[in-house]
Structure formats: structure tokens, C-alpha cells
Design brief:
The chain has a single domain, classed as RutC-like (60s Ribosomal Protein L30, Chain: A, 2-Layer Sandwich), CATH 3.30.1330. By secondary structure, it is of the alpha+beta class. Strand 4 and strand 5 form a beta hairpin. Helix 2 packs parallel to helix 3. The chain has a 6-stranded mixed β-sheet with strand order 1-2-3-8-6-7, covered by helices on one side. The protein has a two-stranded antiparallel sheet with strand order 4-5.
Length: 148
């Protein structure tokens, strides 16, 4: 009986996963890797949009030590990436926020909330980390969205 259940579960898993990844043509990549880092800024598969972790860079510069400036730049960078894939903040279903300093949590929430003016927020995980790829990065955010 146990083997039958496992076989049924495996079959169900294959059936559920197969339609969304059945052809390579369904994967679309937006943007270019930055500074030689092997990552796609945005990947679209079917109706799902995945935006890679984004720091507060603008034209190769970061507002060193200024959390609010970095947070606003991260959100603007994400807005641009989402737009490149044909969606906006209203279609974001999940965000992951990485913060290097606990004292920035309330400022992050204040800026973050301004991007969801209708009060409908995506699911979110906020994690405090010891560091990010550059010691000047105070945060990084990634997100997932769904097309209409």
C-alpha cells in the first residue's frame, strides 16, 4: 500500500509540474547581468515573473550609509524590472527583504508601503543578514509576480 501512495504522489507531481516547464520557449529573460554576475534580473515562465535580488544601485553608484535613499532606489529598480516584464506592483504576490541592520526595519516598512497604495500587500519575508555582496549594501529585495 505504501508503494502505491508514493507512485500516485510522484505521478501527481509530474502532472502538476510538466505543463509549466514543458518547453524551453516558455522561459523569457529580461535585462542583462550586472558587473559580470551570472544572474538574470527577471525570468518569466508562463504567467509567473521572478525578479532577482536587487540592491540600491543607480548607474553603478549606491547611497553609502543612507538607508532611505537605498530603499527608495531598490523599489524604483524593482519597479523598472517589473515593468520590463509587463507587470506592476499590483501583480506582486511575494517579496523577500534582506536587511543588514535591525534599526532600518521601520524605515523599510514606511517606504515599502508607499508602493502599495490600495493597502493590498504581497506576502513578505523579512530577514536580517550579517552582510550582502558589497559592504555598502544595506538591503536587497527580490519579488515574484503573476501576469493577469
Amino acid at each position: 500500500m505504501h508503494k502505491t501512495i508514493v507512485a500516485l504522489c510522484l505521478t501527481c507531481g509530474v502532472v502538476l509540474l510538466q505543463p509549466s516547464l514543458s518547453t524551453a520557449e516558455q522561459l523569457q529573460y529580461f535585462g542583462k547581468p550586472v558587473r559580470g554576475v551570472p544572474v538574470s534580473p527577471v525570468v518569466k515562465v508562463g504567467k509567473l515573473i521572478f525578479v532577482s535580488g536587487t540592491p540600491g544601485f543607480k548607474e553603478g553608484k549606491v547611497a553609502v550609509g543612507d538607508f532611505t535613499a537605498q530603499m527608495k532606489q531598490v523599489m524604483e529598480n524593482l519597479s523598472s524590472e517589473l515593468k520590463s516584464a509587463g507587470v506592476g506592483w499590483d501583480r506582486v504576490v511575494k517579496t523577500n527583504v534582506l536587511l543588514t541592520r535591525t534599526e532600518d526595519f521601520s524605515d523599510m516598512n514606511r517606504v515599502y508601503a508607499t508602493y502599495f497604495t490600495d493597502g493590498k500587500y504581497p506576502a513578505r519575508t523579512t530577514t536580517f543578514v550579517a552582510g550582502l555582496p558589497s559592504p555598502d549594501f544595506l538591503l536587497e529585495i527580490d519579488c515574484e509576480a503573476i501576469l493577469e
